[in-house]
């Protein structure tokens, strides 16, 4: 066999292998796109059902809960992508082994635009505390106690779910707690981003509930600015002014309105007990935080 012929055979084999790899890559890409299209179609169908089927109008019904859980699962980022958010929550808590549970996000299918609107916030919980995380940056935007529940016993008295216990043992002054708050923000850039408090104006507050239960509040504000909302902010409520401009009714007959532009003041707030325990945190430097989606 001549060297020229051998080189030709090798070239054909190389081209064949490369071609096979390209075909396999395109096939895998096609299958992934097909699966994503099926996922979005299922989200659309569930969204239609939730707005049109009367059985989903009772928000406490088991069927409604199951539909919400399904939508939360279908709209969730892959678990490996959410690991950075989990790491941010653990860093915020300074608990590297904390068990972090993913709850849901605020992605939704817009029937009006016929497309899936990406999530602006994901909700995670650790015990009785929830965390709203920005999926674009994996930074923690909001932290607070999970909403409690209550009901009535057979004898007519009320029952309440367990509430979080807070530490008031140290009895720090407001000035001392302010330093704790500033130190916390400076110490956690991995969890909340690099925040320059020097460019913001500080407002402070205090609430004394008696029996040594004192809470301190710190809000740093920036300059007011006009913000464009895309997608627009939607509010649906029977309390809306029926004569408002651009009012419309959703599939359940509830009046709604959309806001495309608003004037907002960027802020970051944090609250601590007099014992130095964090109560809540909210970062609205880049706009309002998405509502927590605790199941």
Q: Span from first to last CA?
A: 72 Å
- The stretches of 5 or more residues where confidence is low (pLDDT under 50) are none
Helix content: 25-40%
Derived structural class: alpha+beta
How many whole angstroms does the radius of gyration measure?
A: 26 Å
Count of individual helical segments = 5
Major beta sheet, strand line-up: 1-4-5-6-15-14-10-9
Total domains, how many? 2
Question: What pattern of helices and strands is seen along the backbone?
Answer: HHHEEEEEEEEHHEEEEEEE
Residue fraction in strands: 25-35%
Report the major sheet. Answer: 8 strands, antiparallel
Q: How many strands?
A: 15
Mean pLDDT: 87
> What is the 3D form?
globular
Explain how this protein is built:
This protein is of the alpha+beta class. The chain folds into 2 domains: 1-75; 84-224 and 265-295, no CATH class. Helices cover 33% and strands 30% of the residues. It is built from 5 helices and 15 strands. An 8-stranded antiparallel sheet has the order 1-4-5-6-15-14-10-9. A 3-stranded antiparallel sheet has the order 11-13-12, with no helix packed on it. Helix 1 packs antiparallel against helix 2. The longest helix has 50 residues, at 3-52.
């Amino acid at each position: 066999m001549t060297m020229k012929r051998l080189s030709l055979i090798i070239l054909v084999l190389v081209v064949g292998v490369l071609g096979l790899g390209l075909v396999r890559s395109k096939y895998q890409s096609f299958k992934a796109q097909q699966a994503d299209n099926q996922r979005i179609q299922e989200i659309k169908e569930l969204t239609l059902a939730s707005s049109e089927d009367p059985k989903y109008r009772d928000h406490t019904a088991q069927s409604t809960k199951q539909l919400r859980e399904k939508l939360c699962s279908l709209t969730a980022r892959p678990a490996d992508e959410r690991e950075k958010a989990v790491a941010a929550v653990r860093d915020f808590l300074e608990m590297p082994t904390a068990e972090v549970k993913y709850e849901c996000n605020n992605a939704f299918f817009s029937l009006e635009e016929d497309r899936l609107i990406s999530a602006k916030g994901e909700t995670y919980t650790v015990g009785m505390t929830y965390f709203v995380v920005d999926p674009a940056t994996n930074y923690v935007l909001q932290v607070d106690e999970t909403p409690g529940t209550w009901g009535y016993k057979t004898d007519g008295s009320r029952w309440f779910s367990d509430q979080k216990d807070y530490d008031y043992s140290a009895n720090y002054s407001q000035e001392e707690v302010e330093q704790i708050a500033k130190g916390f923000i400076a110490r956690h850039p991995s969890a909340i981003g690099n925040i320059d408090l020097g460019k913001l104006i500080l407002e402070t507050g205090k609430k004394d509930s008696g029996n040594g239960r004192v809470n301190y509040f710190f809000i740093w504000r920036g300059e007011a600015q006009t913000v464009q909302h895309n997608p627009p902010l939607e509010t649906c409520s029977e309390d809306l002014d029926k004569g408002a401009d651009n009012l419309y009714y959703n599939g359940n007959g509830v009046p709604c309105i959309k806001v495309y532009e608003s004037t907002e003041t960027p802020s970051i707030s944090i609250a601590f007990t007099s014992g130095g325990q964090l109560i809540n945190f909210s970062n609205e430097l880049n706009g309002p935080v998405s509502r927590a989606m605790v199941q």
